[in-house]
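Risk register update: the risk of archive-format incompatibility is retired. Evidence:
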Amino acid sequence: MIQPDDDSLRLALAEVRDLQRTVVVLRSELELSHNERQHAVQDALSFAHSEISQLRDTVAALRTSLERLTQEKLDALQQANTVRHAEIAQLHDTIRALRDTLEARA
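Archived output:
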């Protein structure tokens, strides 16, 4: 059997230690990368939720504004109808009065 000499044993042990250190460094870098990715995902989700909330608030405000404008339009139409009916009634009264005056003269 071949016996390894002390130098080759030392070299092999040094290489094993170097590989172990490399594994530790790579593991740390991988964990750091994973944590950074998780943080980026959380930031993106937070931003998305914030934007969704703002859009919902905008939609609610626009809906309220539209409902208010619709109601104002309906109120204006109702008021215009009331004025129109009052004018028509006044014109009928004027026609009746003129007719009565003409009939009284005839």
